[in-house]
C-alpha cells in the first residue's frame, strides 16, 4: 500500500511537472521579432484586428517558396507596387497599415474589403525579417550613421539642431514624407537612421523591417497608425473594386483566380485587370491623342522655318549639356572620390545624354 501511495504520489508529481512544461511551452511567443516588452504589447493589441468584418487573409495559407502572395497581388494588378523583394516593401507596409481607425477590437482603413489576421511568424516570413529580431540592425546603424551625420553628439538621442544643414534637410524629408510620424520631430529616431544610411550611401537595405517596426512602435489607440494611404490612389486610378474580391479558402468564399476575372469580363492589360469596355475606351482615346499629336507636329513642321528650328535645337542642347556639367560638378564636390557613386552618376549622365540626343538631335550640316 505504501509503495502504491508513493507511486501515485510520484505519478502526480510527474503529471504536474508535465502540465507545467506544457503550459510553459504554450506561453512561448511565436517569434522573437520584438526584443522589448513594450513593442510586443503594442503588437498584441493590433495583430488580431481586422480591417473590415470580411474574409481574412492568412499569410500561412500561401507558401512563401513559390511566391503565392506575389502571384495574388500580380493578379490584382499591383505587380508594379508589391514585390517580395527590397526596397519595394516600404510601399507595401506604407499602404496596408494606412490610417487605421480603431473600432473596438477592429481597425478600419481607407482600403476597403481587405482583411488580415496576423501571426508574428507569418509576418517575419512575408517581410523577410530574421527571427532574431531587428534590434541588432538598428543598433549597428545607430552607431555608424550617428558618427556620420552628427559626429560631435555624445547623447543617445541625436537632436535635429546638431545636424549639418544637408542632413537637417534629409531629416525633414524622412520624418514628414518618407516615414511620416506624429509628435515631436526634434530628435533623430533609431528608425530614421536606416533612411540616412540609404540616402547618404546609396546602399540596398531591406526597408520593410524598419518600416514595419516603426509602425508597430508608433501605434496608439487614439491616433491609429501614422502612415498615409498611397494604395488608395493606386486603386482608384486603376479602377479596382476591392469590395467584390474574396480571398482564401474560407466557407462561402471564392478564390481569386484568372477564371474569376474572366467571368467578370475583364482583360489583363499592362499588368492589371480592367473591364473590356474600359480597355476599348482607353484605346480609342489613345488613338485620338496620337492622331492629334501627329497632326500638330505636321502643322508645326510646315509653319516653322528650318533655320529657326535648328537654332532652337542648338540652344536647348547647350542648356541640357550645361545642366549635365553642373550635375557632374555637384557630384564631384559632394561625393569626392567614391567610385561606386561616380559610376552611378556616369550612368545617369549617359542616360541624360541619350535623352538629349533623342529630343534635341544635332542639326543637319549646312548645305554651304
Structural commentary:
The protein has helices at 2-27, 37-46, 68-75, 89-96, 120-127, 135-149, 165-178, 193-201, 207-217, 230-237, 258-263, 276-303, 306-335, 339-359; strands at 101-103, 106-108, 158-159, 187-188, 266-269, 272-275. Helix 6 (135-149) packs across helix 8 (193-201) and helix 13 (306-335) packs antiparallel against helix 14 (339-359). A hairpin with a 2-residue loop joins strand 1 (101-103) and strand 2 (106-108). The chain is mostly helical. It is built from 14 helices and 6 strands. The strands form 3 sheets. A two-stranded antiparallel sheet has the order 1-2. A two-stranded antiparallel sheet has the order 3-4. 19% of the residues are buried. The model is unreliable at 1-35, 46-70, 76-137 and 204-257 (pLDDT under 50). The radius of gyration is 29 Å and the shape is flat. The protein has a domain at 279-359. It is 55% helix and 5% strand.
What is the structure about, briefly put?
The chain is mainly alpha-helical. It has a domain at 279-359. The chain has helices at 2-27, 37-46, 68-75, 89-96, 120-127, 135-149, 165-178, 193-201, 207-217, 230-237, 258-263, 276-303, 306-335, 339-359; strands at residues 101-103, 106-108, 158-159, 187-188, 266-269, 272-275.
Q: What is the ordering of alpha helices and beta strands?
A: HHHHEEHHEHEHHHHEEHHH
User: How many beta-strand segments?
Assistant: 6
Distance between the termini: 126 Å
Strand content: under 5%
In terms of quaternary structure, the protein is single chain
Globally, the shape reads flat
Describe the strand arrangement of the main beta sheet, using strand numbers.
1-2
Tally the helices: 14
The biggest beta sheet reads: 2 strands, antiparallel
Q: How helical, in percent, are the residues?
A: 40-55%
Stretches where pLDDT falls below 50 for ≥5 residues?
Answer: 1-35, 46-70, 76-137, 204-257
Helix-strand makeup class: mainly alpha
Radius of gyration: 29 Å
User: Which whole number gives the mean pLDDT?
Assistant: 51
